[in-house]
Design a protein that fits this description.
Two copies of one chain form a homodimer. The first copy, chain A, is of the alpha+beta class. Chain A is built from 16 helices and 16 strands. An eight-stranded mixed β-sheet of chain A has the order 7-6-5-8-3-2-9-10. In chain A, strands 11, 12, 13, 14, 15 and 16 form a six-stranded mixed β-sheet that branches. In chain A, helix 2 (30-51) packs across helix 4 (116-128).
């Protein structure tokens, strides 16, 4: 800043600034940029589907612009979702301008900075000079809007090169878009009424852009991204066609969708004076007390009264007449007052234990899986929920692997810096008789209205004490369950082994008995299908088979007897 | 983005966006924000001083706005530098608007994003509603400009509340600013001519802002920041007055200033088509070949010709008439062509081995110190130099500590993720007979026109292969030197120990000799100040003292003899 005093001062538009500093958003080089662009568009697609409460369907294809070109080269990325779609008039602002965002209301989103998708478009434009193509149709509309646009980077404004609107039927004839053939009738009765069964339906958004990429160097991360996304959204259909013509298809394994998040008012904790000033400006409240109740999450009459007493502010005062000192006092007190109710977790949408377990089973086929959704908690005024999964054995490779997710996004970079890795490292696994060289996979999902990412590229989560604690507790519960399962498994293996021995004893005893009683003793009946019953009868000598003694007990008794025999 | 389709779309100004996402720039909470704000302003102050080629002087004070207030509370931060100052007309744009930057020319700066200082102002404003005060005087001016301003956050525009210009003399009477009394005459003959010796001189910039802070929780980091800054800029005077009235003063230990960096043209490697299009638009060149030579760093006729052949582009073509495909081809070829000359290191300003060693000695008083400035190198078209220092013993605490710097900024957070930590961890210290539990301090300074930070908060450096390699080589050279010093030290300790033994032998032999030759033998002369000579003479029995045999040899011989005696 000051160092530029003797130089020429240039003002940058937000688009320019972000392009110059694109490495902080994950667009460092052709390999990383290809991965980041794809991921940002897939996440926007999933968000668009979940907003419409439909089971997500996202179709991705990546093609070389010219075949036989060596990396890095120009790729065409096409992402199609069957989500809510975008109103034609909103397209230029939402796709062609950096720093457009939602208003103050809070709810859980994949997108966090309102930036990712647009960074992908900008990156595509600066590396290929090509416009982006947007094709979109709102969920109950019959018209498809088709745009070709660029971003005027110096002015941070959309520049529309082409705009046309055509009927859905005509669009489906000319395009290779996949029609939405199956409509979930339970969830969308209204839309199914309007549509005759024979006519193909399509709604959603297709984004197509050219960008400089390096498929060879990003292939691994991109495939890992799809596999991990399939775990965390097992209710989605994902299709990915690679530049080499391979098609990866991740089919949904469940039709249950997590409850969508609701918007809530801001929590008093963490609000600054500038936001307060803006809120007061548009508020119709004439007293400070009313202002607090109308504009903040879970602030009722009693809370407002108690808080104002704590802050030493007059609740009857018109908020528009607060002095600078009073504004600062208000903000400071909001920060320090610890009796505000925590945020309502309805603004969050954890995926739930059952769906998480389904996702893990589907992609990893373990021998054992368990999941825990913790109760909602709060850090700096932001609600959050931690979900932990633990899988063991089966097709899981040896060693401990960690799968990190936040707001249903897999996090693939900087694992070592993430709060999760720290918790996993610090946990005393020996207490649970779990050795880290066994086939173990750990899954952590953090859902929050504000994920404390350390970077714009959404690589990893900062170490926040409250979050760390929840991960720790969730992980311990899972570890405890695995430990019980493992000891049962060991036990049953032990029992099976002893049973084999026992059969040999019985055979020997039977053969000696045969000689003394001079009749055939058939022990094969004792070890039939209903083993426990058989054994219980044979040993306990009780009538009616009522007192069923199971294999374990038999083995223990025999073991105890043979121990005694030895001493 | 797409997820906002059914919600109200809001466009954010860059100021608003950065305020909402201030955690990515290091303004997470009152403690971190206080540290970051202070550091950003100190760094701007140092840059302003170095631009004027003067020995830097930066004076910082931090006071509570109201005494007896518990943290977090409002602090007043005042940073004064004796640098170049800012022209009055530039003040509103440079201080009151986010995303103002320099033009395309490249040189090494502390500031990297053109953002840090302004984030501090914005944070101060949103937490206290107070304006910032800027007092500035250009280096050869006699007029001081005084501003009070706010940032209109919705419009990202400066809002001037007060502006006045007064003579320097009057300003010094009314203000508590420190006059610049000592002018470095060698470096600034011109300005000293203009100034009569009796009149006090003042130039530079004072920035004063109110902000919500938490001194208790940030004190440690802030003091660490000053101590580490004093190491990397040992030619600066730094003064810091804490809210508790303590004054920390870091005096300069050297008057030599590193050579300042020069601006260079952009390197062809890493330029995108958008930048190319902009350059072509303003260029007066009528052929592609001329355009390349005029606008790119170290591209002469031969290079241009060879490159154009490689790119299969016609050098005689008017650059304004390139098609989209040709632009992409140009960019792609610039990326792939590996025969461009590397960037000229004159755009860099490493501090140099001597200054680095001075800084380390001054702040840490080690028993041993060494430093290496590596040769300039290149990553993705950006020039960089790695400097490594290694200190041992003295007042350095036990264990290995790492001091990281980039463009003369100490990096205090996320050490574990930094490329430096990785190199230190991976180095095989045993090869150098250095045990990590000894008192060791490692210093790494990376100077570059583009530091690959992973975060806007400038916490740590990404793992770039070329940089990693240079750090590794520098560290190995330092480790080798320490290893030699350590073995010499061990050797001399060993020698000293043997000498004590030897004296005992001599005393014994002398006493037996005394009896057989019946006269006093004075061995004290043999072990006088000039020990080696004495011993050499006493054992080798050669004349003229020419063949001086040193203590080590004596010890070895005696040792060898006594070994033989034992067998």
């Amino acid at each position: 800043m000051v160092e530029m005093a003797t130089e020429q001062i240039t003002e940058l538009s937000p688009s320019e600034w972000f392009m110059r500093n694109r490495n902080i958003a994950g667009f460092d080089n052709a390999a990383r940029a290809l991965y980041t662009a794809l991921r940002e568009l897939v996440e926007n697609g999933l968000d668009a589907c979940e907003t419409s409460k439909a089971l997500p369907e996202v179709i991705v294809s990546l093609k070389r612009e010219q075949e036989d070109k060596r990396d890095p080269t120009v790729y065409v990325l096409r992402v199609e979702d069957h989500g809510v779609g975008v109103a034609a008039d909103d397209v230029p602002t939402l796709f062609g301008k950096v720093l457009t965002g939602t208003k103050m209301a809070l709810k859980q989103h994949r997108g966090h900075f309102g930036l990712g998708g647009k960074m992908a478009f900008l990156y595509g434009q600066v590396t290929t000079q090509s416009p982006i193509r947007i094709i979109t149709c709102r969920i109950n509309s019959r018209k498809v809007a088709i745009f070709s646009l660029k971003i005027n980077i110096q002015r941070n404004e959309p520049q529309i090169l082409e705009r046309k609107v055509i009927p859905v039927s005509k669009f489906l004839q000319t395009q290779k878009a996949s029609p939405v053939t199956t409509i979930d009738k339970k969830k969308r009765k209204d839309s199914s009424k309007k549509t005759s069964k024979k006519e193909p339906v399509w709604h959603g958004t297709i984004t197509e852009l050219s960008l400089m990429g390096d498929w060879q160097r990003s292939k691994g991360k991109i495939l890992e991204y799809f596999k991990k996304t399939a775990i965390i959204v097992p209710y989605a259909n994902l299709t990915f066609e690679t530049p080499d013509g391979e098609v990866y298809r991740y089919e949904r394994a469940t039709e249950s969708l997590p409850e969508p998040p609701e918007e809530i008012l801001p929590h008093p904790h963490g609000v600054d004076t500038e936001t307060l000033a803006q809120m007061i400006k548009v508020s119709k409240s004439t007293t400070l007390s009313d202002f607090l109740m109308d504009n903040f999450h879970r602030v009722g009459e009693k809370t407002a009264e108690d808080f104002l007493k704590f802050a030493e502010l007059n609740g009857k005062k018109n908020p528009k007449k607060l002095s600078r000192e009073e504004m600062v006092k208000l903000m400071e007190s909001m920060e320090k007052y610890d009796k505000f109710l925590p945020p309502d977790p309805k603004c969050l949408s954890p995926i739930g234990e059952e769906i998480l377990e389904t996702g893990i089973k589907k992609e990893l086929s373990p021998a054992f899986v368990t999941a825990v959704t913790r109760s909602p908690s709060v850090y700096s005024g932001h609600a959050f929920v931690v979900e932990v999964g633990l899988a063991y054995g089966g097709q899981i490779p040896l060693g401990m692997s960690i799968y990190r997710f936040s707001n249903r996004i897999p996090l693939l970079y900087d694992e070592g810096s993430d709060v999760t890795s720290k918790v996993v490292r610090e946990l005393d696994w020996r207490r649970y008789h779990i050795s880290p060289d066994r086939p173990i996979a750990i899954f952590i999902h953090l859902a929050s209205t504000k994920i404390p990412y350390k970077t714009v590229g959404k690589e990893y989560i900062a170490e926040v004490d409250e979050i760390k604690r929840e991960i720790d507790l969730g992980l311990k519960e899972c570890a405890r369950r695995l430990s019980i399962w493992l000891s049962k498994k060991e036990r049953s293996e032990y029992v099976a082994k002893r049973m084999t021995l026992l059969k040999d004893y019985y055979a020997f005893i039977a053969s000696t008995l045969e000689r003394s009683i001079s009749r055939k003793v058939d022990i094969s009946k004792l070890f039939g299908n209903n083993k426990s019953n058989g054994i219980a009868t044979a040993t306990a000598q009780e009538e009616g088979g009522e007192s069923v003694v199971d294999e374990e007990t038999v083995v223990e008794k025999v073991a105890a007897t043979s121990e005694k025999g030895r001493t």
